[in-house]
Amino acid sequence: MPPPDNLFTDTRAPESGETFTPLLSCRNVTIERILSSDRPDLRLYDQPQDEWVLLLQGRARLQVGSEEVSLKAGDHLLLPAHTPHRLLTTSAQPPCLWLAVHIHPKGD
User: Fold this and answer.
1) Per-residue pLDDT tens for 6-29?
2) Are 79 and 51 in contact (CB under 8 A)?
3) Domain 18-103 has CATH 3.40.50.300
4) Could you state, in order of their start, the residue ranges of all structural domains in the chain?
5) What are the pLDDT digits (tens) for 33-89?
6) Structure pTM?
């Protein structure tokens, strides 16, 4: 059995954008840790899978479809497949640390 790991180990944010760390992939589910810079990539995501995100630390503002959503530590959100979304702002201290669960369509 591998030793346990900790989501809060090495939470230094990247210079810009985000760092994605895969934690688990099982059948049609992928879980990843995301660490965001305070200079987010403004890329618009439109993913084929559902994504549930939990903000573990920090504050963030997202554009989800045509709405803006503000999140603080402990807030979570379901982004259904093909829902356009992007990060608009993220905190510097503490940096945004996320847990994301991707639920891929069967057969993907």
Assistant:
1) 999 999 999 999 999 999 999 999
2) yes
3) no
4) 18-103
5) 999 999 998 999 999 999 999 999 999 999 999 999 999 999 999 999 999 999 999
6) 0.92
